Amino acid sequence: MGIFGQSTGFDADVENATRESNTKEDWSSILDVCDKTSSNSRNAKDCLKAIMKRMGHNDPHVVMQAITLLDACISNCGKAFHLEVASREFQNEFVRLLGKAQPKVSARMCQVLKRWAEGDFKNDPELNLIPSLYAKLRQENYYDFNTTNNKPSKTSAKMPSASDTTANSQQEEDDLAKAIELSLKEVKNSPKHSSAATSGGVNQYVSIRLLVASVF
């Protein structure tokens, strides 16, 4: 495993983010690792070493989590991390692990490699080893990159922006207004519409508003 078998100060954090007992991806721990890595460019190498150690784990569940963590770091930790990934050491280790991976793990590795090569690493000469590795593996026709799902995973998703939050709030307000309008129409069109019915409509308006507010 070369340099990727060495222990680093990130081992505990990465192991926590890729625990065998996790029933789903631990995004809180994953983002903690990303934050710690991006806080100092010198952390990139140690973080990558720790992740690659977990990618060599015997449990495929751990390996899948490690791939998710690696993809998240590539999406969020900047150029310093990209340079560590675009190294000969990483390329050799990635190919070694890909060659022994189970089909589901292999497909996931091909998926993220394709996205890296066509995305963050595509137009930077300093990162050329990743597009070159992708092209080489495709040319060999040993791995099928055409059937992998190339949609961005949750690891590449950003946290909701202020504009997203505003849009969601506006949608909630629109839904509330529609519910109130329908309620008042029903009261108005009722055969027994009277002052008492009007009073009931106001009460129903309040009930509808409270009901919708509780939903949102």
TrEMBL record:
Which residue ranges are recorded for the region named Disordered? 145-173
- Compartment(s) where it occurs, according to its Swiss-Prot or TrEMBL record: Endosome
User: Is the keyword Thylakoid assigned to this protein?
Assistant: no
Keyword list (alphabetical) reads:
Endosome, Protein transport, SH3 domain, Transport
List the CDD domains: VHS_STAM (cd03568)
Example of a GO biological process term: protein transport to vacuole involved in ubiquitin-dependent protein catabolic process via the multivesicular body sorting pathway
Domain of life, source organism: Eukaryota
Which GO cellular component terms are attached? ESCRT-0 complex
Q: Please note every region of biased composition (Polar residues).
A: 145-170
**Which positions are tagged coiled coil?**
none
Molecular function (GO) terms listed? Answer: phosphatidylinositol binding; ubiquitin binding
> What's the family?
Belongs to the STAM family.
Give the protein's recorded name.
Answer: VHS domain-containing protein
* Species this chain originates from: Stomoxys calcitrans
Q: Which gene underlies this protein?
A: 106088532
